[in-house]
């Protein structure tokens, strides 16, 4: 196994103690079941409660709501150690609250926070985010789902697609247009929709990867949502979602580096065991060079992720530059993941084409990492604008 150790000036002894605990738990309770859960296209709801008891779900949230205040590198540890299981679908759904809950924590009323956050952090309820729409993709400003004020309620009509934890979610943070006359980023608001709301229908989606993660198409037909569930000021929701996306992209970049490392390690193990023409595969120069190329890309991407996390945590640099660095880190890391998955499958040969190997699964899951949270093309365009190009 090639373990690319992080530098101690990024991770304290407390970080590493938490890492060791989570790594041990994941190795016992997640990794052995990833293939089975993937084939079943689900995983036990009890996993949320187990992660909650470890303190994983509460990382970064206020103690008043059952959370544990923590710096950004604790989030990095969680992203890395869950990715180490090789189960992208499990990680995506188990941690969907990391994108669904922050708008509630940062912009919800105190009453809403008290009602929603503790139950999610305890693993009793599931939170999801619903922004993407059919035909809209990464263009958040083009969303068409409307929310019209009617007394003390908003009435929602529209659709959302590709929603992680969309079938299970008890709380869904939804991007809506509250000012139909506005276009683009103006007139967008954030609303928390209850999972049992009348008029909300959910349809499961079949995917290339992330099979264990439930992904849904949501339809809102006259769904009434209390005005008290508004997150932040009306018509000022675009900033809510953009801030949320930056954190999501950094987490995805950290995960992608570890998925790439999982592919590298599986390829190394296979190359040491597999013999061709009388010699272990790893004795072939062309194979060793492939492995080195994989390690180089992982090191380069991870170095950028860690440096970016340090800058964000300590607020070093212009905000626009940090957004640009976040976009670039996601691109670099997911490209490293793509390269390593491809090379690992090639090295494993026929076995790399068989379901059950980590590399085969990660190979299928690369594209959702390169598209989700903002596609590579959108990331490059956003980077250019932030750099003034």
Coarse structural class:
alpha+beta
Cα shape: globular
Q: Major β-sheet, in short?
A: 4 strands, mixed
Gyration radius from CA atoms, angstroms: 21 Å
What's the rounded overall pLDDT mean?
93
Strand content: 5-15%
- Low-pLDDT runs of 5+ residues are none
Q: How are strands sequenced across the largest beta sheet?
A: 1-4-5-8
Share in helix: 40-55%
Please, how many helices? 13
Give a verbal description of the structure.
The protein has 389 residues and is α+β, with helices and mostly antiparallel strands. The protein has 13 helices and ten strands. The protein has helices spanning 13-29, 34-40, 46-54, 72-83, 88-94, 97-100, 102-107, 110-121, 237-273, 285-313, 319-348, 358-371, 376-386; strands spanning 127-130, 146-150, 153-164, 171-177, 188-194, 200-204, 215-226, 230-231, 275-276, 279-280. The chain starts with 12 loop residues before the first helix and ends with a helix.
Keywords summarizing the entry:
389 residues, alpha+beta, 13 helices, 10 strands
Q: What order do the helices and strands come in, and which of them pair?
A:
Blueprint: H1 13-29, H2 34-40, H3 46-54, H4 72-83, H5 88-94, H6 97-100, H7 102-107, H8 110-121, E1 127-130, E2 146-150, E3 153-164, E4 171-177, E5 188-194, E6 200-204, E7 215-226, E8 230-231, H9 237-273, E9 275-276, E10 279-280, H10 285-313, H11 319-348, H12 358-371, H13 376-386
Parallel strand pairs: 1-4
Antiparallel strand pairs: 2-3, 3-7, 4-5, 5-8, 6-7, 9-10
Helix pairs in contact: 1-4, 4-9, 9-10, 9-11, 9-12, 10-11, 11-12, 11-13
